[in-house]
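Reply to thread "Modeling small-molecule complexes from scratch"

Following up on the discussion above, here's a worked example others can learn from. I took a protein sequence and the SMILES for copper (II) ion and predicted the complex. Inputs first:
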Amino acid sequence: MFNTLKIAAAAAVVAGSFIAPAVAEDKMNDLEIAHTAYTAGNLDIRYAHLALALSEDASVREFASTMIRDHSAVNDEAVALITKLKVTPQDNGLSQALVKGAAEKRAEFVKLSGKAFDCAYAKNELGYHQIVNQTVEGKFIPEATVAPLKDLLKSALVTFKAHEKHAENMVKGLNCGA
Amino acid sequence: MLRIRKIGGALLGAIILLTAACGNGAFAGETHQVVIERFEFVPATITIRAGDAIEFVNRDIAPHTATEVEGEWDTTELAKGQASRLEFAAAGTSDYFCAFHPHMKGKVIVTPQ
Ligand SMILES: [Cu+2]
């Protein structure tokens, strides 16, 4: 079953830095959830732009283009909802940890090229979507209180789960080894 | 593996992408619908008659396509709420997928009139 500590630990791995369990254990409010969900999407878009700049592999480039297209569509819906509700998303510890972790990953990735880059990107996409999906499903959806936000998160989760499967296939196809 | 079965190779070339100007009575077939929802084509397999049309409608936030596996026909990108109508003039079977999410697969079976 879902366990917030597990998510805290997993998020810390993705973030590449330790997050105090309190961050993930604390309930997040709707504005924090919106902020973190939006941030997670934006970070994946940034990874994708890096992949388009550095990879020559067709499967990696197609995946990256899909990440930009889909996460932009989901985040556009989020902006539309935020605008309609006249609210401002709230920065929080989890968003900050994700931003920090992704900056560290990008710094690693820019030093790579060819297959080493492709494999690092693909594996990170798989891990990133796994963690984000666990967090959206196990924390954001149950903790969100505003119905349209909950609905948007549910639709987003379907999208992100498709990405997770797609990333799995990409990793397999690249034959990166263990 | 995806495989395509063509009848006489004529099926796919005979598909016409209708423009917005159509609908004035020239079309004699029936229009069927395939809904793209939760990253699935529904129904995943559809059987129609030669001369019928299929309207592909995307209900997901994520853009999708319905693209014949060899690229013989293609709705091109469908954003949320968008639809594309394709007419299938000749009998045959074709497999299609989403060009953006390749694990999404569907099949169109066109029986003779
Ligand atoms: Cu798709």
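What I'd highlight from this example: The radius of gyration of chain B is 13 Å. Chain B has no helices and nine strands. Questions welcome below.
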